[in-house]
Amino acid sequence: MISTPSAGLLRRSAAVASMALLGLGLAACSSDANAEGSGGYAVDKDTLVFGVVPDSVDTETNYQPLMDYIAQETGKEVEYHESTDYAALIEASVAGKIDVASFSGFTYVTATTKGAELTPISSIITKEGAEPGYYSEAIAPKDSDIESIKDFKGKKVCFVDPSSTSGYLFPSYNLLDNGIDPKEDISPVFAGKHDVSVKKTAVGTECEAGFAEDVEVAKNDKVKVVDKTLVPGAPIVVADALPKETKDQLTDLLKEVTADEIVDSGVKSADTDAFRQVFYGTSPVDDAYYDEIRTLCKETKAEQCTEG
User: What is the pTM assigned to this prediction?
Assistant: First the structure.
């Protein structure tokens, strides 16, 4: 079964507009976090710091070809920013320590609400002709008697991270939509990464059910999918503090590019099955694309949606 936000949610267009304005207003209050003399860069004019939401053990490997491409085309060193968790990446972006990054939609909204000044330019797609977006999947052990989200009540449930789009925000909304309070009616467990949430759920001890993104769920044949929801695609963002020419160059490079084009440019690290499984190309997105997340923030009253 595929879940989508209820008709009541879709009617709340006024809430969407107000949350969008709130996000823009708060983002404008960001402090000047770049080091003095850096020229708007997180480190210096010869370096670009690339941050990624730590989704799985393969995160850095998955993004290395894209970083190689940015380095080749800009002539700058691209430094991978190792984040221990979602909160650490958010803090780094607020502090001006990130130049370009791949966030989740919820992490982007959370970061800008807390003062990070970022511009989304595109979202990764995994298939030709696909629209940005992926699935948040509700899962249970293969042999479990759990058949729907309603059966999660009273269970130990794995989430990914409080700032995860597909691993917390949308799951929280779907639980509430099924009459289950995600804080009171279940025992929440935060696994930290999508692959860990899937593994813990597959074992069925620490977590009797769980949530994770579709890519990681597909890797494990010991779980079953009992529900799924399409969520907005994760944005590639650039820091507004960067010099205009650098922002424009990164936007041109990353707004609409395919794996084939990256390979043809001379980046041989992109010519692998592993990279092509997670990256077909990019498709343009903008800030308004994430208004649905701002609305769900209000619906779920998620603490991560508030300033501070």
Answer: 0.81
Q: List the structure tokens of 94.
A: 């607020």
- How many Å separate Cα 67 from the centre of its chain? 18
Q: Which amino acid is at 287?
A: D
- Give the CA count within 13 Å in the CB-facing half-sphere of 307: 13
What is the distance between the alpha carbons of residues 197 and 217, in angstroms, rounded to a whole number?
A: 9
Token couple for 142: 């293969």
54-109: pLDDT as tens digits: 777 778 888 999 999 999 999 999 999 988 888 999 999 999 999 999 999 999 99
Which DSSP string corresponds to 14-83? HHHHHHHHHHHHHHTT----SPTTSTTSSS-TTEEEEEE---STTHHHHHHHHHHHHHHHH-SEEEEE--
Q: Is the dihedral of CA 17, 8, 119, 34 positive or negative?
A: positive
